Input
Amino acid sequence: MSDLVRRALTALFEHTSDGVLVLDLQYRLVEANAAAQQLLGESGDALRGRPISELLPQWTPPEPLSPEEPPQEGEWVWHGTARTPRHAHVLRVRCVPLPEGRVLVLRDLTAQAEVEASLRHQKEYYESLVLHSPVAMITVNLRFSVVSWNPAAERLFGYTAREAKGRNILQLLAGAGPMREEAEATTREALERGRVQLVTRRLRKDGTLVDVELPGAAGDGAGGAGGLRRHLSRPHRAAPAARAGSGAPAHHPDRA
Output
């Protein structure tokens, strides 16, 4: 091994953001890099010679590994040592076998876990709002196919979420003729300006027209366009030409 490679490995050991622990075959600490010392809250002199069971309680070393076997890793919650108790940390421990001992690479995943938990809570909160909202909330992708359709949308337009998902929102609720032209123009405006707000009419599954407010907003490039639909007044009967483009059944007064 060249001097350059040795210096590179030494620099990597000292300056990597992951904690690195060098253990002998009895799992006693031989050396700890700066990141490991910071994580464990003690100096290298205080750590050397101590068993790993004291430093990482509840962590179970893998079965005896030969140097030819690949490293093993796992994640668990660490609460510090008896000398230096800490707030809970989520650690990923990678155990690398060597002929003379083991190398443990410790990666602190706490910040990542907190971000993921926050995003998960936000997603659950948003889904709860959409599910229980009295306002019809519809999300479409960039091809204007329905992605989500909440219960209020089911009540307002008569289509179940299963019936609506995957269908083109313009064909579903705007039919053909002037209403379709207005819906397409509104959609283009939402994409160009980022949002649009107006009162208009849309078709229900039974062929009636319903007055709605469209406080719609265009999402980002990945998420497509989103929109809200809110019922304002009593439904009206749609003209046959408008119904034809939506697939809604024609209305026959004698069958009402």
Remarks:
- Confidence is low (pLDDT under 50) at residues 221-226, 249-256.
